Amino acid sequence: MINNSFLLFAQLIVLISGILKYDSGAFSGFSTCQSGNTQTYTINFNGVFGNVPQLILGLEKIDMGKGADFRIQAQNIQTTNFELQLNCVTSTPFYSAIFNWYAIDDQRIQVINNFNMENPDNQVFDHDNANAIFGILSITSMGIYHDVDFQISISSITTTQVTVSITKHNWWFVNLKQIGYQIILGIQEALTDVEILFHTSQYNSGLLTQYPNKWLFLSYNGFALNNNIRTRSVRTSMSESYIVETWYGTYINNYHLKSWIAYQFTTVFSAFECLTLRISQALDMEVQIKPKIFLEINEITQSFSSSTYLIIDKALNLLNMKIYMKCTKTKTIASQFLKCQSCSTKQYYKFSHYCHGTIDAVTYFPRFQLAQSFYKELNVNILVDRIIITQVLYNQVQSSETLLDIQVLNS
């Protein structure tokens, strides 16, 4: 059973103007389930979120017969509550489970759900945040029809994709008919002290190092068993330690995950700012053979005349650009370049250039600088008479900062 003092401690609530940013709790209200039975439970948050939060489930107790197939789906997540739906496929009973749940409204963490996958195999998933390159995996459901021996884990994470692999230790793997899991990705600060251990007997963690503003997260990554499953994690007061045990029968060998998940962050990602700018107006003798608008970025030795999406390496904190604009007679080119992201006024350098008979091209040479080292996501949008470059930022909320905007206007 979950320690009562832990349940009290686990109701972590942050109220900013009465709005939740994170919350947590535990649910153990499932009834015995089998033969197609479906149960749906509504779980209330301890307040109201400003946005629909991301939901993380940690499986801390499972009691089911060998041959049971239970399927869990988190659904209808709202700002005030969410639902857990349980469905049991086979006649072998599923008795009970305890899930610790964690809700967070922060884009520095990304949760990918793969609930109730039949015929389990390796999978590749796209993810949004280029800096969410740290991750853990949590099993949420299983269908075990006989003896099994498997481990499921994250095998690789890139700036755009995460790969999940299932280690198939022997022919028993065919008895794993269904598995569900969540992938929890985050920036480096999001996950601390991650440990996956294979337990063949009761495990006692001993006194744990405590991390402020982080949840202790426990779950399973696999099992090796030839018996009914009766395994659980039991926390001591204030999550100072925990044990992993089988409370009846032969010990259930298991791959167990321990991690700390941040619910408050000190890392704040900022946008490139224009450090210097040179502007050239010219009569270009080759104007007829050039694109109307094109962009060059020296550091990546690439040029673009159409819209594109870029991930700039975290080692590149200085970008020298060249933006070429054809200048049609009697028209005006208006431009702005981000000077100061955090300023409340005068955030941009702004310019206007009139196109007359001796000017048919305006070229901009901005140098953008950023002190932080992280992956930078840029959207380059090139239209018929306009170029806009924005940078996507994942902080508590996802935002888009305009680095430059250059447009040909009718005078």
UniProtKB/TrEMBL annotation:
* Gene Ontology biological process terms from the UniProt entry: cell adhesion
Say if the entry is tagged with keyword Ribonucleoprotein.
Answer: no
Looking at the record, the residues that make up the H-type lectin domain are 41-104
Question: Where does the UniProt annotation place the signal sequence?
Answer: 1-18
Which keywords has UniProt assigned to this entry? Signal
Annotated GO molecular function terms are: carbohydrate binding
Q: Which residues cross the membrane?
A: none
Question: What is the recorded name of this protein?
Answer: H-type lectin domain-containing protein
